[in-house]
Amino acid sequence: MARLFSPHARITRITPEAIDYYDLRGFQEMAQELIDLGTFTSFYERETVRSVRIFGGFAHVLSAYETKQSEHASEPFARGVNSLQLIREGDGWRVLSLLWDEEGPSVPLMLAQLFDPRSPQ
Amino acid sequence: MTKISRTRICRTVDRLVGELEELGLAMNRAGSGNGAECVINGERYKNFGSCSYMGLERHPRLLAGAHAALDEFGTQFSFSRAYLDSPLYLALEDALDRLAGRRVMVAPSTTLAHLAALPVLVGEQDAVLIDQFAHASLHMATELLKGNPIERVRHNRMDLLEEKITKHAASAERIWYICDGVYSMLGDFADFDGLESLLQRYPQLHIYIDDAHAISWCGESGRGAALGRLGHCDRVIVAMSLNKAFAAAGGAIALPSDELRSRVRRCGGPMLFSGPIQPPMLGAALASAELHLAPTFAALQDELAQRISVAELAIARHGLRVANNARTPIFMVQFEAPKSLYRALYALRSRGYYCCVSTFPAVPVDKPSLRFTVTRHNAVDEIEQFIEHLADVVHTPQPEQSATIVGHPC
């Protein structure tokens, strides 16, 4: 992760209960804890749609994802959207902020609307 | 050990269970039933969700035991056992001593047995290792072990357990490994061969096993899986259930010595301040223990074993994939996503079958599962028919329901 993320990166997770704010190390500790607890035993995430806007030394990426048991699973057990801010640091792009929310009863995932550049939102 | 806050976990569980409740898949209210069937919202279902594996809850001897105790002692015997013990307790513990081949202490429930025993058994200089899928009541009990290093171990991974034993060997006086004998969700056994090997090689290792789901249907006189496999070792403590297949009430702990039994009885908090099992259920438990000790009990175990075999053959015949091949009455079919699980459960209900939803936090987020059980209540032909329907539901895409994807673990 250290190669992909800026040392100044923040990772933010929105859930129905709370918003979690992490630095890189805090996120890794949280992920390790979920594995130790048995919350997850397998995890495969695939990007389904992406839009990118670039200006100067930064970029904004909106990236829809689906999470599956494995690469070969036919049905996702979760879906959502990542919002990434990328910054050009030295030799390449790195993630400065990763923020995501997940589909749920009160968060319908309307990809066509979200990723349509003519959408008024 | 846990950095995710208790409040956060509580809110997440509240939401997830609430969603299942709205879907009609959890917190259901049963009408009357006879074990083979259950009634939910006025609808009658073939029951493939019960933990009464031996189907003894209406056995004439248990009913007679409960009635006799009710007549003699009334509805309750309202003393702390630290002050005054019902004579039924003494008779029950004596019968359970013979059943288990050890000194047995009865507790108001298996959960309270853990809460009583673990803080007494685990010393301040000991390290604690616990299987990640050990029963929730065991994880709860380890919360009482403040000051002890506690680590989770991946499910049944003896190699990782040995790594952690080695890691703690220099600093800990004793190392406790806490696990289930039969896992309530997956329905698989602890790795008894692996544990025996570790016990032989690491004298510091002590093991505490919750064998609640193996009692009665498994082992000589129904003593369960753990006592049958590791009961000869004094460093193994086994918790038992007097519910489930035993069909009465309460829990128990099989201890290797009188001295240890007395210490847990005198020092284990819930043994002093929690109310006792009340007379009717003590009477039922005593009758159940005597039934287990009778030479005819093995024939009842064989009846369940036959049903488990029928289920296994039907599963193989219909190409149904289950989580493991352990010979227990608990079966688990894993789905890729909660949506497809919910559709399968709805489809089975529409065909007249009840079985259980099993999603996070009962199982990992990525393993939404259908848990079904086989009991002596289920007729052989009904088991075959149920599995035929289950396979059809699993192998055929089911129509979309209003079920929503449940995500966001803690």
List the defining traits of the structure above.
heterodimer; A: 121 residues; mainly beta; Nuclear Transport Factor 2, Chain: A; 6-stranded mixed β-sheet; 2 helices; 50% strand; globular; B: 410 residues; alpha/beta; Aspartate Aminotransferase, domain 1; Aspartate Aminotransferase, domain 2; 2 domains; 7-stranded mixed β-sheet; 13 strands
Please describe what this structure looks like.
Chain A is mainly beta and 121 residues long. Chain A has a single domain, classed as Nuclear Transport Factor 2, Chain: A (Roll). Chain A is 15% helix and 50% strand. Chain A is globular, with a radius of gyration of 15 Å. Chain B is of the alpha/beta class and 410 residues long. Chain B folds into two domains: 6-53 and 296-395, Aspartate Aminotransferase, domain 1; 60-293, Aspartate Aminotransferase, domain 2, CATH 3.40.640. Chain B contains 14 helices and 13 strands. Chain B has helices at residues 6-22, 60-73, 87-100, 110-121, 136-142, 158-169, 192-201, 225-230, 258-267, 269-273, 279-293, 297-317, 338-350, 380-395; strands spanning 37-40, 43-47, 103-107, 127-131, 150-153, 175-180, 205-210, 236-241, 251-255, 330-334, 353-354, 356-358, 369-373. In chain B, helix 8 (225-230) links the parallel strand 7 (205-210) and strand 8 (236-241). Chain B is globular and about 60 Å long. Chain B starts with 5 loop residues before the first helix and ends in a 15-residue tail after the last helix. The relative contact order of chain B is 0.16. Residues 402-407 of chain B have low confidence and may be disordered.
